[in-house]
Every structure is written in C-alpha cells, then in structure tokens.
Amino acid sequence: MISIWIAFIAFVLLMLALDLGIFHRKAHIVSAKEAVIWSAVWLSMGLSFSVFVYFAYSNQWFGLGTMVDAVDGLTNGGAAATEKYLTGYILEKSLSVDNIFVIAVIFGFFAVPPIYQHRVLFWGILGALLLRGLMIVVGAKLIAEFHWILYLFAVFLILTATKMLFLKNDQTDPNRNIIVRLTRRLFPVTARFHGEHFVVRAGAPASYESEFPGAPTVPDEVVDKARPGTLLLTPLALALVMVETTDIIFAVDSIPAIFAITSDPFLVFTSNVFAILGLRSLYFALAGMVTKFRYLKVSLALILMIVGVKMLLAEWLKLTLGEHFNLYLLALIFSILAAGVSVSVLSKRRQ
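Structure (tokenized):
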C-alpha cells in the first residue's frame, strides 16, 4: 500500500518540477492559448487516471480495494472506485472554480504583474497540496473511528451552501485578513516588487512600482534606513500568503464534500490532487471571463447542498437507487454546472 503512495507523490513532484523547471523556467505572461492547452493536459491526466483506478481496484493492486469504505459500508471494486474517483474529481474541480474569483481579486488588489502570477500560483498550490494531504489523513482517520462525524460534515456543507446563496460576500479586502495583518506585524514589507522574489534584502533594487493606492506597507524611508542585509518581504509574498489563506478556507468546504463520496484516502487524495494541479492553468484560461458567469456561485452552492443532503441520506439512497447511486450524483453535478454556465451566458447576452 505504501509503495503506491510513494509512486503517486513522486509522479506529482516530477510534474511540478517539469512545470516550474522547464516549461515555466523563465517568467512570462501566460497567454489564453497556453492556458487552454495546459488545462486540457491536466484535465486529460485527471480523467485518464480513472483507468488506472479501475484496474487497480479490480485486481487489488498494491492492496487497493481491500478495505471497507466507511461511507457506504462496501468494499470498492473497480467500477465503484472509478465512479467515486470521477465524482470526487468533478466535485473538487467545480468547487475550485469559485477559488478563481477570489484569486483574481487578490491579484488585482496587490497589483501583481501578470508575468509573476504563475509563480505565486505554483507555490500556493504546492502549499495547498501539503495542507490538503494532512487534512485528508486526519479526516479519514476520524471517519474510520467516529462515523457520526459524517453527519457533522453534512450539516456544515448545508450551512455553507445556505450562506453562499443568501449572504453577499463579494467584497474581499486582503487588508482585513488576520494572517496578512499578522505577517505585516512580524516582518517588514517593501512597497515595491523585486522581480519574482518573495524575500529580498534591504538595498536590493526594485523592479516594479506597486500601483494600488494606500498600500499599508513599510514606507520607503523606513526601508531605506533598514540595515543592509535585513530580510524584507515583497508584495508578492503577501499575495502568496493571501492565496494560501483562501485555500485553507476553501479546503474546509471541499474536504468534507469529498468525504461525502468516499472515505478511501487514496481516492480522496488523488481526486483532490488532480483537481488542484489544473487550477493554475484554469485560472489563466478563465480569469478574464469570471464576471460572465454570475450564476456559477449559485450552482456551486446547490452542489454543496446536494452533497450535504446525500451525506445525510446515504443509506436510504443506496437502498433506493442501488450501489451505483454515486453515478447519479455525478450526472446531477454535471447538470447543475451546465445550467449555471448556460443561464449566465444567456443573461449576459440579454444585458
């Protein structure tokens, strides 16, 4: 069992190394065409992995498919594991779209030059993978020991969906974020960008003037008086801190959602990883169009609510719809997402 985890993590690290070390070794503005191509690559990888899942669980390679899934009380065979993986992957992929809206606000607030945005997202997503891996391990252990936690997750998802539907939270002010405020108190922050660096030493030449007004960073005269060699954070570092913070918030919603599908740690982790790996390219492909999908947030809220209800009624749904009821959930998620996008496009055309 351990060998498959090591192999998968090594594969992910290899892909990340190729991404940053070869394909994005030199900082550049990611074009829409490049973003679409990379989105297709990551999407193909995520969907193709379901083939491996099917054969691995059918033949119980590496010990997969030998343990009872605490969510439905069944042992995952090839077909069941594939259904759960694809449902989890599409669910996490759709929920990550909401993260794009917030990232666009963050980059706009900190005036992050487009040429450096990929670097921020790369390190932000690397941190997200580590964080979610830890949350999945803890969550799987808790569910295995205390099955009733699933019902707490269900109530939490329904409340989150209700909040998304009825409360307006479009105004995101990074200055009010407690992590950002704490970072500014603990570390001096320059008022200018220094290339793609997150940390610089006092006296280093700036390469880009910050454009957002009233930026509460260290004034130039204070930085100038700093002792040569003093470590200073750049606005790019603050943007990275903010991206990591928002991912923590979104992970609190998405991790319980995936545990509504399965408690198998391997299925949960792999579906999460492939969904997150494509987030960077998806951001550059959709960042300019997020305002067109005004009803997408409603679709995501409905999906969270349905997943929460499914978690509460899992036993009844299994008896009513059969053991492949996750396949119906996958089709329903697709339908809701398609409806949200279609209504948004039609509404935009009418306006």
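The chain is about 70% helix and 5% strand. Residues 202 and 225 are 9 Å apart (CA to CA).
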